Amino acid sequence: MRGKTAEDQRLLELLDPVAEAAGYEIVRLRLMGGEHARRLQIMAETPAGDMNVEDCARLSRAISEIMDAADPIAGEYTLEVSSPGVDRPLTRLKDFETYEGLEARLELDRMAEGRKRFKGQLAGVEDDQVAIDLEGEEETALIPFAWIIEAKLVMTDQLMKRGADGRAARLAADTDTEQDPE
Length: 182
Prior knowledge:
Elements (H helix, E strand, L loop, with lengths): L5 H16 L3 E8 L5 E8 L7 H18 L6 E6 L10 H6 L4 E10 L2 E12 L2 E6 L6 E4 L3 E6 L3 H23 L3
Parallel strand pairs: 2-3
Antiparallel strand pairs: 1-2, 4-5, 4-8, 5-6, 6-7
Helix pairs in contact: 1-2
């Protein structure tokens, strides 16, 4: 899910170590467009789940150096590095644990219980399966992570509050650091 195509996967193999060395994790990578005007979109974050404008610029510079040297993409492309955002994609098994209790939409690569799309509250992870409490269902559904091709948090008041609380905590920490630089 972090990369859709074989080309995306090759780029992840090249760029994951670069991101990790710079202190970031690639959440999702997509190479989009045809032969001309392609766009390499990378969503990333720190291990703590943060990603500000300075982080994006820092990671973009690190990736650009490797991309220029390795030249893995034929033709011209634009590099775009961003944070996953509040209603972020869920691409790694750990994301489903981190965002437990929040509402998400999942799309599968096959039919399960007569459908491919599910919406409900994330209920954690059990082995390699995502637990989700579906609307109108009494039992928690377990969906194999390998079956999920697309997953995203749903914009809700709870999600917005969590994002605002996180921003407030980061601002308070930054203010404390500026006032007491040890």
